[in-house]
Amino acid sequence: xxxxxxxxxxxxxxxxxxxxxxxxxxxxxxxxxxxxxxxxxxxxxxxxxxxxxxxxxxxxxxxxxxxxxxxxxxxxxxxxxxxxxxxxxxxxxxxxxxxxxxxxxxxxxxxxxxxxxxxxxxxxxxxxxxxxxxxxxxxxxxxxxxxxxxxxxxxxxxxxxxxxxxxxxxxxxxxxxxxxx
Length: 181
Hints:
Alpha-Beta Plaits
């Protein structure tokens, strides 16, 4: 069975839209997903599924979460192979110390990346920004709270995208590889 990574958008931030990770694991298990592992408390899961497409998985998970929690949760699902391409496609230069300040924007449909191409004008050195064929990458060298490009990325990405820092992306990739992806 293929390995997938689910990225929930906007959960467990403040008091609204609470999705306990144990409940997320239960929802995924109820959808016949196996080897389910969650990471952090921000809506990250690695699992195996017989589903044939990441987009199909995302829609299925979003429906199940809406039924269970009675609110909508946008979900982006990437196959382990797609996640590897996103990691390999990062063109930015950075150090290990930058991993928490390097954001990756994930979208379900690569066509949605076009909306993110116009943020270049907000990038202030030493920040770096690039939109690749699988994701968008922003290094907020002075920190996310200081970055106009970071604020715009989080808002312009809209409900079809979600962001994770590089350290989390690498942990998700390691989890996906450990399941035999």
